[in-house]
Design brief:
By secondary structure, this protein is of the alpha/beta class. Helices cover about 45% and strands about 15% of the residues.
Amino acid sequence: MAGRSSLVKKKTPRRLRRALLIALGLPALALGALYVTRLSWGPGLIVPAPDPTYAPRPLPRGVDRAIESERTGARVRAWVLEPPGAARATLLMLHGIRSSKTTRLADGRRYAQQGFRVVLVDSRGHGESSGRWLTYGIEESRDLIALVDVLEGEGALAAPLMVHGVSYGAATAVQYAAADARVATTFAISPFTSLRAVARAYAEWIAGPVGTFMPESMLDDVLREAGRQGSFDPEAACPLCAATDIQGELIVAHSRDDERIPFAHAEAIVDAAGGPLVEVRDASHNQTGASEVVRRSVDEWLRRAADREASPESGVNRTLRGPDAQEGSPRSTTAVE
């Protein structure tokens, strides 16, 4: 009996070592396999558009007309929802990645009833809009400039101009607002700081520990090939870099519990650009934009911006940003659950 007990004790450490080798070895093997094949799968997760073909559809209920712009291989289509009376402002609404403007239709109808001329945009390569490649705000922001030019040419650009985007659309909204001085107010819901940062965040969300330990050289190679395929510079897809050039107001909302894009992305953008940060709790990435607290915050800022434009003292109250901000003027944070 004593001999058998001794045998069990001797075998236990060997089993433990084997279990540790398997636990450590499998992720290493998986990471190694991903590294070897990185150029065959990596860019395909980043740049191919989900809907590359121009595909106009009948206008749904509540949509008055469609407008389009065309540039650099993409035909971008948007729906216009008119208010019952004179427009108080123009509101561009942008969807998330691999989605479409139909997801913004319910809110668009609501804002149109509140007096806003609402423009629901299908980003290039999404929904009705054509385009083979996604560029994470670079070409998409220029598409918006061209689309607003169309509105302005029609005499339908009611001031102030505001833009509201969620996730991918939020990142595009920030880059667009930095490039177009006509934008008075930007609402960015769950934005990311850069393509590089969000690619790593999604790798960690999807692959767990394997994504966490992804070497920077692997990410470099994947982004370089993605940029080659899509004919853009991945490092230029940087809402954080653009945020300091925004001339109007920037309002950011993000969930502390976002499982895809960490809350730190929103903090970094607001730290660089100034303005309020609406902090949401107990909401996933996809739940944040639809949360009641975010909707109430957006409604209030929309009302204020439109009322300010209508007042005799109309003008944008721009928060000091970046290096121009004075000491003692921290960002405004509102925490809600």
